[in-house]
Design brief:
The protein has helices spanning 3-11, 15-18, 33-37, 108-124, and strands at 23-31, 47-52, 58-61, 68-73, 76-81, 86-91, 135-145, 148-156, 167-172, 178-185, 191-203, 206-217, 223-239. With 240 residues, the protein is mainly beta. It is globular.
Length: 240
Amino acid sequence: MTDLLSEALEAHGGLQQWNRFTTVTATIVSDGELFADKGLPQDLEPRRMTVSLHEEHASVLPFGAPDQHTDFTPDRIAIERTDGTVVAERLNPRQAFTGHALETPWDPLDRAYFNGYALWTYLTTPFFATMKGMGVEEAEPWTESPSERWRHLRVTFPDDIASHSTVQDFYFGDDLLLRRHDYHVDIAGGFAAAQYVYDIDEADGIKFPTKRRAYLRRPDGRPDHDHIMVSIDLSDVHYV
């Protein structure tokens, strides 16, 4: 574990506190250009997200109908009714994105897969970096502005964890809290994103951002503020 990761974990509540829990639930409201580009524009209805903390498993309710939810793991995505009936299912879902570009339409299972791995990543940051197989190193700091220089954690994900891209970058302020998360969205043509996080809150001793805004990232590393690809607002967060 790097010094930066150790310090960031402590700033976000500490690994000992994190390990007291197995799941987190949160109300989410999401929007952004990505979903419209994919032919599935997002409504602004609140949904309830449930994420496992120590294995990659996630679900959102409702999805597609009031009595339907998703069931995500890296090897399977499904849309199910609350009585357990499977509405739609796809095994090895990552393979379905082979050859996709940014403008390639998604079906509901594609959207459910993206939601599952993305929210799992966001709701477990930075603690997921302690999981088996994660590669972690402190890289060169990022100068966000003349008065802000953020420390930089680069994480390499193992093959058995689904996420945006294999290599992702996380930036932390002087208080060691997350400020920004950079990645490529491999399942949408590999476009570069710079996701800024805001409005840190705390629940059950764990600190987390309640607002996320992912912009297209320009070649110089700066965000293109004209294009919000994904926005996510969190509320009513509980760890159990």
